[in-house]
Amino acid sequence: MGQKIDLNSIPNHVAIIMDGNGRWAQARNLPRSAGHKEGVEVIRKIALAANEIGVKALTLYAFSTENWKRSLAEVKYLMQLPELFFNKFLPELIEHDIKVRVIGFEEKVPPLTQSVIKQAEKRTMHCKGLQLNFAFNYGSRAEIVHAVQEIAKKVSVGTLQVESINEETIRTHLLTAPLMPFDDVDYLIRTSHEERLSNFLLWQNAYSEFYFSDVYWPDFTTEMFFDAIAAYQKRNRRFGGVSDKKEKE
Ligand code: IPE
Ligand code: IPE
Ligand code: MG
Predict the structure, then answer these.
(1) How far is the CA of 20 from the centre of ligand 3 (A)?
(2) Which residues line ligand 1 (CB under 6 A)?
(3) Averaged in consecutive runs of 10 residues, what is the pLDDT profile of the chain (249 residues)?
(4) Which long-range contacts (CB under 8 A, 24 or more apart) does 143-147 make?
């Protein structure tokens, strides 16, 4: 482990936009799928590293609700990745007490992929270490629409009063509700030099710190992850207030 990390101030919830697989492959004259395949190995390494330093929740953006716009072949390949990942690494995750969860709109996902995901969730249900979440067919606007519909239903049948709707109500209707109390993201990392959210956890990132890495996801290393955590520990999070003693009026 990187000595630069203070184990007493680890972000609870780290979210990563794993970007750049396609460009990584293209730079090597390989098909985009080769980049996705390579990226799967990195997921394993980073999940183990996050678990090792005591991160509570790690949410990885694996497939967005907008990624259906890609070619049929690429989408098909991406839909097979959960199977590839869990077949290869589930025993190791269980060994490390890592709990798997998938957040997203599963109805559109092929039935085989859905069942692989369910199995992985079931087999790690008892795990007490890192909560490893895959955002798969996830989009934050769709998530918010879904939450609003659920809330509106409750209002229309009279189990919820309009006046009692508050931030807690919204929070508990988002797909990240099972992660509570760690549903808010503390640290958002994006690889591949892009600096945008791409519809990822809009509500949950309200006060997170951002970190952008220039490397493509398949080249992202454990050392780089620890560097990112060390950078987080130098940040001064104020949440709209004023910070520690250093700042005078
Ligand atoms: C991230 O890599 C993985 C997914 C979005 C599924 P990309 O496939 O977006 O790779 P680039 O950004 O095109 O290089
Ligand atoms: C975001 O990456 C989604 C995932 C990493 C799964 P994209 O490559 O889809 O995002 P844009 O299109 O560059 O914004
Ligand atoms: Mg991309």
Answers:
(1) 5
(2) 18-23, 63, 67, 78, 192
(3) 85 98 98 98 98 98 98 98 98 98 97 98 98 98 98 98 98 98 98 98 98 98 98 96 68
(4) 143/174, 143/175, 143/203, 144/174, 144/202, 144/203, 146/105, 146/173, 146/175, 147/173, 147/174
Nearest atom of ligand 1 to the alpha carbon of 62: 6
CA of 208 to the centre of ligand 3 (A): 21
- CA proximity to 106, closest of 86, 131, 84, 82: 82
pLDDT of residue 243: 78
Ligand 2 atom 8: residue of nearest CA = 19
Report d(CA 93, CA 44) in Å as an integer.
9
Catalytic site residue 67? yes
Would you state the pLDDT for residue 189?
Answer: 99
d(CA 117, CA 111): 10
List the residue whose alpha carbon is closest to atom 9 of ligand 2: 67
Phi and psi for 16 in degrees, rounded to 5?
-130, 130
Find out whether 101 and 133 touch, Cβ atoms under 8 Å. yes
The residue annotated as part of the active site, out of 6, 12, 19, 205, is 19
What whole-number distance in Å separates Cα of residue 13 and Cα of residue 100? 14
Check residue 3 and give its pLDDT.
Answer: 65
Q: Among all ligands shown, which has an atom nearest to the Cα of 136?
A: 2
Instruction: Return d(Cα 201, Cα 215) in angstroms, integer.
Output: 22
pLDDT at 248 (0 to 100): 56
Q: All domains of the chain, ordered by start, with CATH?
A: 13-140+182-233 (3.40.1180.10)
